């Protein structure tokens, strides 16, 4: 790699010092503050740090942290990889990730959906991976159609190789201005945000994973890669049993996307797949915390689509604790709870906690789901018989449980 200009070197070094200080004083992992300091001193730092590297940007409403991790794990086969492993997915986090691995020839960056055009423009990344696009919490949602429109403009006229989930109509539309697209049939669990054609507004007809607009020519492209239950099918039609440790269909979909991205970097499936199998948890997700013989597995769910994925992973034989907050990162408005179909929980032992437990209780009551209301998560856990229990929590509720119970066991 070529040397960074002096000013960029200084900005990068000072950013790293700020990050270290932040960690030492217990103010977090430091990846955001370090990047901010760096960008303050050298606004062009991200472009300079990205220069000369092979970069993949990963964006979606759900699963981007996990997919970033899977891709990183695979590409370690090829050498050192710089990545924002802690989900700091805006430019300050990217600066921090690239500063910490200055010699890494490869970078895999999780990018917030709204920042994708800016980060693509700044870094000139060669590969972009797009998985799904659905509404996030109500008060941060914005217009996802407008977001896809911005993706289209950002990708148009670039040599970027896009890997995109063609089962999601909005992602397909957002990706289809790119010069080179590899389509992956990764499935789509949440369909409520894509009944209308993004091109003309007409109704979309669906049959299994296929979809087509009734009023214009927009339709699902033919995929090169596909997920067939537990098997990944590559462009030559060869079938690979995924057999990964991360649970659920959504993670198998993330794994197929990761294999397609690895392939774009020239890494064949037989070398990438064993690396994906090494990933057991991502930023605390799917890990288990233990107290007094109760083993609680933590599932993070930040939005309506995320709840459906968590229901898919949760064991129907086990009791389940649900915890909902409404702090800034969760979205202050909990009315999105009404978009989720909770009827799947009927007949199971359900325990409800979190700062907004009454909002969730009302929603469950309307869906005829019986539950017990608990003042705190600790109380909910103490009510369980010894053994396993699943926990679904939204963002700050999840973080509270993690900080109270420490890391994984
Ligand atoms: Zn149409």
UniProtKB/TrEMBL annotation:
Its EC number is 6.3.5.13. It catalyses: beta-D-GlcNAc-(1->4)-Mur2Ac(oyl-L-Ala-gamma-D-O-P-Glu-L-Lys-D-Ala-D-Ala)-di-trans,octa-cis-undecaprenyl diphosphate + NH4(+) = beta-D-GlcNAc-(1->4)-Mur2Ac(oyl-L-Ala-D-isoglutaminyl-L-Lys-D-Ala-D-Ala)-di-trans,octa-cis-undecaprenyl diphosphate + phosphate + H(+); beta-D-GlcNAc-(1->4)-Mur2Ac(oyl-L-Ala-gamma-D-Glu-L-Lys-D-Ala-D-Ala)-di-trans,octa-cis-undecaprenyl diphosphate + ATP = beta-D-GlcNAc-(1->4)-Mur2Ac(oyl-L-Ala-gamma-D-O-P-Glu-L-Lys-D-Ala-D-Ala)-di-trans,octa-cis-undecaprenyl diphosphate + ADP; beta-D-GlcNAc-(1->4)-Mur2Ac(oyl-L-Ala-gamma-D-Glu-L-Lys-D-Ala-D-Ala)-di-trans,octa-cis-undecaprenyl diphosphate + L-glutamine + ATP + H2O = beta-D-GlcNAc-(1->4)-Mur2Ac(oyl-L-Ala-D-isoglutaminyl-L-Lys-D-Ala-D-Ala)-di-trans,octa-cis-undecaprenyl diphosphate + L-glutamate + ADP + phosphate + H(+). It comes from the Bacteria. Keywords: ATP-binding, Cell shape, Cell wall biogenesis/degradation, Ligase, Metal-binding, Nucleotide-binding, Peptidoglycan synthesis, Zinc. The keyword Zinc applies. The active site is at residue 333. One of its GO terms (molecular function) is ligase activity. Pfam families: Mur_ligase_M, MurT_C. Zn(2+) binds at residues 197, 200, 213, 216. Residues 300-397 form the Lipid II isoglutaminyl synthase (glutamine-hydrolyzing) subunit MurT C-terminal domain. InterPro entries: Lipid_II_synth_MurT (IPR043703), Mur-like_cat_sf (IPR036565), Mur_ligase_cen (IPR013221), MurT_C (IPR013564). Residues 61-262 form the Mur ligase central domain. Pathway: Cell wall biogenesis; peptidoglycan biosynthesis. Forms a heterodimer with GatD. Belongs to the MurCDEF family. MurT subfamily. The lipid II isoglutaminyl synthase complex catalyzes the formation of alpha-D-isoglutamine in the cell wall lipid II stem peptide. The MurT subunit catalyzes the ATP-dependent amidation of D-glutamate residue of lipid II, converting it to an isoglutamine residue. PANTHER family: LIPID II ISOGLUTAMINYL SYNTHASE (GLUTAMINE-HYDROLYZING) SUBUNIT MURT, MUR LIGASE FAMILY MEMBER. HAMAP family: Lipid_II_synth_MurT. This is Lipid II isoglutaminyl synthase (glutamine-hydrolyzing) subunit MurT.
């Amino acid at each position: 790699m070529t040397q960074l200009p002096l000013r960029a070197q200084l900005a990068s070094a000072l950013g790293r010092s700020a990050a270290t200080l932040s960690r030492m004083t217990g103010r977090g992992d430091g990846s955001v503050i370090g990047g901010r300091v760096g960008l303050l001193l050298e606004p062009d730092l991200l472009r300079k740090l990205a220069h000369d590297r092979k970069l993949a940007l990963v964006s979606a409403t759900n699963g981007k942290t996990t997919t970033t991790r899977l891709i990183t794990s695979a590409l370690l086969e090829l050498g050192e990889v710089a990545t924002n492993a802690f989900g700091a997915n805006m430019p300050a986090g990217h600066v921090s990730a690239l500063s910490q691995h200055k010699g890494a020839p490869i970078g895999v960056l999780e990018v917030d959906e709204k920042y994708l055009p800016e980060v693509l423009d700044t870094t000139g990344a060669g590969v972009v991976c797009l998985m799904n696009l659905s509404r996030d919490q109500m008060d941060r949602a914005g217009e996802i159609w407008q977001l896809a429109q911005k993706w289209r403009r950002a990708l148009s006229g670039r040599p970027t190789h896009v890997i995109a989930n063609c089962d999601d109509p909005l992602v397909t539309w957002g990706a289809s201005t790119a010069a080179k697209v590899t389509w992956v049939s990764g499935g789509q669990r949440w369909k409520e945000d894509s009944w209308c054609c993004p091109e003309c507004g007409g109704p979309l007809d669906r049959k299994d994973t296929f979809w087509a607009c009734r009023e214009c020519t927009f339709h699902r492209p033919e995929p090169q890669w596909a997920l067939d239950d537990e098997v990944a099918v590559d462009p030559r039609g060869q079938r690979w049993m995924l057999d990964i440790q991360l649970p659920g269909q959504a993670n198998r979909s993330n794994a197929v996307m990761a294999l397609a991205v690895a392939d774009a970097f020239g890494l064949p499936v037989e070398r990438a797949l064993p690396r994906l199998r090494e990933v057991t948890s991502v930023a605390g997700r799917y890990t288990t915390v233990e107290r007094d013989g109760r083993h609680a597995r933590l599932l993070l769910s930040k939005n309506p689509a995320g709840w459906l994925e968590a229901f898919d992973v949760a064991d129907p034989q086990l009791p389940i604790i649900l915890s909902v907050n409404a702090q800034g990162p969760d979205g202050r408005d909990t009315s999105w709870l009404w978009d989720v179909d909770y009827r799947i929980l009927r007949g199971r032992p359900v325990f409800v906690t979190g700062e907004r437990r009454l909002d969730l209780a009302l929603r469950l009551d309307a869906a005829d789901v019986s539950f017990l209301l608990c003042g705190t998560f600790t109380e909910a856990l103490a009510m369980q018989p010894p053994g396993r229990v699943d926990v679904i929590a939204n963002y700050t509720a999840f973080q509270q449980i993690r900080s109270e119970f420490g890391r994984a066991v």
